[in-house]
Structures are given as C-alpha cells and as structure tokens.
Amino acid sequence: GAAALVVWIVAAWAAACGLRGRRHRTAASAPAAATRAGSSGSQSGAGWLWGAKFAQSCRSDKYLPGLDMARMVASIHIVLGHLYAKGALPPCGETHTSPHCVHGDNYLFSWGFTWVPWFFMLSGFVRTHARLNAAEITQLEPPLTFAHRCLGKLYPMYALGLVVATAVTVSRGRPLPYWYESAAQYALVQSWVPWLAETPLQTQCWFISCLFPYWLLFGCCYRNLVLRITTAGRAWCALALLCLLPWISFVAPAAWEESPPDWYADHHTGALRDDPGAGLSIGVATLKFNPLCYFHVFVSGMVLARLRDLAKAGRGGGASLSAALVCLRCGATLGYITLLLVFGLRDLRPESAKISARLTI
C-alpha cells in the first residue's frame, strides 16, 4: 500500500510538472504571438494593447522549474513520515509501538513532518517572486480576492477528501467527529483552536487552514515589508530577525532545569479529546498547528524572494550582495546536503526536534 501510494504521488507530480511546463512554454511564446498579432493588424488597437500587457505579465521569469523536484521529494517524504508515525513502515512498526520512534532502519522517514513549514516558506517565496516579475510590481489584488483565488486551487480537493474520509469512517463503524469539529474543518479554522486541530478526519491537512490567513495578509506584508527592502543588506537583516523568533522553542524548555529534551513526548494525537484541560497538550498542539507559530516562515519566503530579486538586479553592493549571489548559486546544494546529514545521522538530531524543527527556518 505504501509503495502504491508513493507511485501515485510520483505520477501525479509528473503530470502536474508536464502541465506546468506546457503553461510555461505557452507563456514564453506569448510575447512573440502578441507581436505577430499586432504587426498583422488583425487586432484593434485596444486588443493589441491588452494582448501585449497580458504577454508581458506572463513572462517566463515567473516559472521556477528547479522547484518541481523539490516539491516532489518533499511531498513523498511527508507521506512516508505519516506512515512512519503510524508504525506502518517496518522494522519500526514491528519492534516499536511509540509513534515517536526514532530507531530502526527507517529513521530518515521520521523527519517527514519538517517539510510542511517548508511549503509555507515556498508559498511566500513563489507568490512574491511572481509579483516581483509582473509588469506592475506595485499593483495588488484585494486581499480577499487574492486569497480566494489561491484557495480555489486547493479547496475542492480538500473538501472531497473530507467527504471521502467521512464515508470511510462510517463504513468502518468508527465514531464521527462532533459536528463543530467537522464544521471547523470545512471552514478552515481548526488550526486556530488546539482542541480542534487534531480531529480524526484529515488531520494532516491542517496546514491549509494556515495558508488562508497568510494569503489574506500577503498584500500587507508585500507592500509594507518586501517593497521597503531596497538592498541586499536589508534583506539579510530581515531574514536574521525572522530566524531569531523560533529560538524560543530552544530557550523556553532550557529555562526549566528538570525539563527533558523531549518534553512534548507525553502528548499524543487526540489527547485533548480525552483530557481537554491538559496544559502540556494545549501547548504542544498550539505550537504544532497554530498559524501564528508559522507566520514568520511564510514571511521569510517573501523576503527570500526579494533578496533573490535584488541580487539579480545587482542592488546592494559589498559583502551582502556577494553573499546573496553565493547562496543563489550554491545554497540549495549545501542545504540539501545538510538536511540529508541531519535526517540520516541520529547524533545530529537537535534537541526538542519535534517542535524546534517545525518552527525554525
């Protein structure tokens, strides 16, 4: 079953990449098509201007094909991480009953959860990159229009997944969530409330309820932060400040001498349904799911896109610009090598990894 699921994901991503590449080629040929149409006189003056603006807004600079493979690897690792946590990947599932098992030959799969915040960063990066490469970089859609347009690509499949999960639960004779838990999931507000974040249906889709408020705030952050960053040095400073925020996940547990590194281990998925007043579970669920805990990750993606844009334009000068150029050329390779080492070597596992690895950038 796990192998079939992985094959299905690879096939889906291959199809998506093919469609994306087709759109990319269409967008790349749009300027030439608009020019030919204008020179032949087959369009009116207003139509030619509209076609030229459309072609210019669909420049191929918006498409980043290098991200396709990263998306595929991240998606597969997330799925394997969920299977690992459920004990469905032997030998961990055969020899250990704890969902936090970090032993066995499948240790690499235990890190699948770390890619979810990466997708938050990627969302901010891609949308800012597209905006910075548009014909008019200062023109923005109304927040609700922009958020609805972004959500329209995800919500139909998300809602269908909830319906299918409900049908499967009923067919197996298992109890359904309370009506308000299901309503919160359909309304995409479950991540805001710790008691609703770990409902039995589609728990793994909690991240969508985080993305919607991020998209609502995209225009505000873009206008008041991204466009105000005019040099590579300022971009580096903004990234440094954003990276400092999640270090509280290291400092706070260390303030208590008796606090073990895995202080969150007593919490298990669904614990708040059994004991709604459990303080530890409330704190863990908040850190794991609340959109406020990941907003800095989304914004860091926006700032990173701005840094890339400034580096391409050569704005900044000095060491900050040189560092940006080095990161653009070698950063991804070094980053993936570092991730592979951390994911594969237990000695490099950071303290409080289940929380700190989620919140850090």
UniProtKB/TrEMBL annotation:
Q: Which residues cross the membrane?
A: 206-225, 237-256, 289-307, 319-343
Signal peptide boundaries: 1-18
Question: What's the superkingdom here?
Answer: Eukaryota
The molecular function GO annotations come to: acyltransferase activity, transferring groups other than amino-acyl groups
Domain Acyltransferase, residue spans = 65-338
- Which UniProt keywords are given for this protein, alphabetically ordered? Membrane, Signal, Transmembrane, Transmembrane helix
Q: What protein does this entry describe? A: Acyltransferase 3 domain-containing protein
- From which organism does this entry originate? Emiliania huxleyi (Coccolithophore)
